[in-house]
C-alpha cells in the first residue's frame, strides 16, 4: 500500500537553528519529519511540540529497547507528546512488544507503533560478527513476524526486504524504509540501500531520507527530484 505522502525527512542536525532553517522551507502537506536521537537529546520534547505546531506529523525515532515496563512507559510518554509514529527494537522481545502495544491501546488516538528489525547499516558480515549468521533478509522476516504477532502496526526494514515483508504480512502492515538513496548520492554508513522509486515499487509505505536532503546545497531541489522520480510509482 503506497502512501500519497511517503517522504519522511530525517532531521539529523546538531542544533536547533539549522534544523529550523530547513523546516521553514518544508511543507507539512508534502512530507513528514523524523526526530531521532541526536536532535531529541539536544532539544527534547519542546522541539517536537514546536514542529507539531507548525503542522508536521512527527516520527519519534528513539528506537526504545529496554525492559517491558520501561518501554511501555516511554511509549506512553511519546503518545502524550502527540507524535504520529514511535518505534521500538523488535529484538527487545515479545513481552516488551506486547507491553508497548497494550499501553498504547489505552489511547484514543495512539501513535503508530513500529518495530525496528535489522538496522540498514548492517550487512551479512556485521550480523555474523554479533552472533547472528545468515542473510539480513531472513532475520528481517522473522523479526517482522514477531512484530506482526505482537500487534505492532509495522516495521522498519531496508528497501531490499520490503517486497518479501509486504508479501508475507499484507497491505495494512506499515513498511518504513531508511537506507534510501536518490540516484547518484553517496551511501555513507548505509549498507542495504535502494533508490526512492525502487523502494516504493517494492512496497515501501514511507521513505526515511536524511543526509541526501539535509546536507544538500539545495534541499528543496532534492525533494522535488525525489517526488518526480516517484511520480510513476505513486500514480500506479
Ligand atoms: O535501520 C535504520 C533505522 C533508522 N535509521 C534512521 O534513518 C535515518 C537515515 O538517515 P540517512 O541520512 O538518510 O542515512 C537516520 O536518522 C537513522 O537514524 C536508519 O538509517 N536505519
Automatic annotation (TrEMBL):
<dbReference type="GO" id="GO:0006207">
    <property type="term" value="P:'de novo' pyrimidine nucleobase biosynthetic process"/>
</dbReference>
<dbReference type="InterPro" id="IPR011060">
    <property type="entry name" value="RibuloseP-bd_barrel"/>
</dbReference>
<feature type="binding site">
    <location>
        <position position="210"/>
    </location>
    <ligand>
        <name>substrate</name>
    </ligand>
</feature>
<dbReference type="GO" id="GO:0004590">
    <property type="term" value="F:orotidine-5'-phosphate decarboxylase activity"/>
</dbReference>
<dbReference type="InterPro" id="IPR014732">
    <property type="entry name" value="OMPdecase"/>
</dbReference>
<feature type="active site" description="For OMPdecase activity">
    <location>
        <position position="63"/>
    </location>
</feature>
<feature type="domain" description="Orotidine 5'-phosphate decarboxylase">
    <location>
        <begin position="6"/>
        <end position="226"/>
    </location>
</feature>
<feature type="binding site">
    <location>
        <position position="12"/>
    </location>
    <ligand>
        <name>substrate</name>
    </ligand>
</feature>
<comment type="pathway">
    <text>Pyrimidine metabolism; UMP biosynthesis via de novo pathway; UMP from orotate: step 2/2.</text>
</comment>
<keyword id="KW-0210">Decarboxylase</keyword>
<feature type="binding site">
    <location>
        <position position="34"/>
    </location>
    <ligand>
        <name>substrate</name>
    </ligand>
</feature>
<feature type="binding site">
    <location>
        <position position="211"/>
    </location>
    <ligand>
        <name>substrate</name>
    </ligand>
</feature>
<comment type="function">
    <text>Catalyzes the decarboxylation of orotidine 5'-monophosphate (OMP) to uridine 5'-monophosphate (UMP).</text>
</comment>
<dbReference type="Pfam" id="PF00215">
    <property type="entry name" value="OMPdecase"/>
</dbReference>
<dbReference type="InterPro" id="IPR018089">
    <property type="entry name" value="OMPdecase_AS"/>
</dbReference>
<dbReference type="InterPro" id="IPR001754">
    <property type="entry name" value="OMPdeCOase_dom"/>
</dbReference>
<dbReference type="GO" id="GO:0044205">
    <property type="term" value="P:'de novo' UMP biosynthetic process"/>
</dbReference>
<feature type="binding site">
    <location>
        <position position="190"/>
    </location>
    <ligand>
        <name>substrate</name>
    </ligand>
</feature>
<feature type="binding site">
    <location>
        <position position="181"/>
    </location>
    <ligand>
        <name>substrate</name>
    </ligand>
</feature>
<feature type="binding site">
    <location>
        <position position="120"/>
    </location>
    <ligand>
        <name>substrate</name>
    </ligand>
</feature>
<feature type="active site" description="For OMPdecase activity">
    <location>
        <position position="66"/>
    </location>
</feature>
<keyword id="KW-0665">Pyrimidine biosynthesis</keyword>
<dbReference type="InterPro" id="IPR013785">
    <property type="entry name" value="Aldolase_TIM"/>
</dbReference>
<comment type="similarity">
    <text>Belongs to the OMP decarboxylase family. Type 1 subfamily.</text>
</comment>
<feature type="active site" description="For OMPdecase activity">
    <location>
        <position position="61"/>
    </location>
</feature>
<protein>
    <recommendedName>
        <fullName>Orotidine 5'-phosphate decarboxylase</fullName>
        <ecNumber>4.1.1.23</ecNumber>
    </recommendedName>
</protein>
<feature type="active site" description="Proton donor">
    <location>
        <position position="63"/>
    </location>
</feature>
<dbReference type="GO" id="GO:0005829">
    <property type="term" value="C:cytosol"/>
</dbReference>
<comment type="subunit">
    <text>Homodimer.</text>
</comment>
<dbReference type="InterPro" id="IPR047596">
    <property type="entry name" value="OMPdecase_bac"/>
</dbReference>
<feature type="binding site">
    <location>
        <begin position="61"/>
        <end position="70"/>
    </location>
    <ligand>
        <name>substrate</name>
    </ligand>
</feature>
<keyword id="KW-0456">Lyase</keyword>
Amino acid at each position: 500500500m503506497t502512501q500519497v505522502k511517503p517522504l519522511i525527512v530525517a532531521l539529523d542536525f546538531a542544533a536547533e537553528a539549522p534544523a529550523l532553517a530547513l523546516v521553514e522551507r518544508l511543507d507539512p502537506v508534502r512530507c513528514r519529519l523524523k526526530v531521532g536521537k541526536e536532535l531529541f537529546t539536544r532539544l527534547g520534547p519542546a522541539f517536537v511540540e514546536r514542529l507539531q505546531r507548525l503542522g508536521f506529523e512527527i516520527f519519534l525515532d528513539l528506537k526504545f529497547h529496554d525492559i517491558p515496563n520501561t518501554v511501555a512507559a516511554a511509549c506512553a510518554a511519546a503518545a502524550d507528546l502527540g507524535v504520529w509514529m514511535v518505534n521500538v527494537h523488535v529484538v527487545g522481545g515479545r513481552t516488551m512488544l506486547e507491553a508497548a502495544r497494550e499501553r498504547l491501546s489505552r489511547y484514543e488516538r495512539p501513535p503508530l507503533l513500529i518495530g525496528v528489525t535489522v538496522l540498514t547499516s548492517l550487512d551479512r558480515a556485521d550480523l555474523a560478527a554479533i552472533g547472528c549468521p545468515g542473510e539480513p533478509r531472513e532475520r528481517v522476516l522473522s523479526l517482522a513476524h514477531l512484530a506482526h504477532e505482537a500487534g505492532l502496526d509495522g516495521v522498519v526494514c531496508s528497501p531490499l526486504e520490503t517486497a518479501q515483508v509486504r508479501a508475507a504480512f499484507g497491505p495494512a502492515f506499515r513498511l518504513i524504509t531508511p537506507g534510501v538513496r536518490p540516484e547518484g548520492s553517496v551511501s555513507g554508513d548505509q549498507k542495504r540501500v535502494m533508490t526512492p522509486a525502487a523502494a516504493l515499487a517494492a512496497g515501501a509505505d514511507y521513505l526515511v531520507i536524511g543526509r541526501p536532503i539535509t546536507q544538500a546545497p539545495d534541499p528543496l531541489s532534492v525533494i522535488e527530484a525525489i517526488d518526480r522520480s516517484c511520480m510513476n510509482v505513486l500514480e500506479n
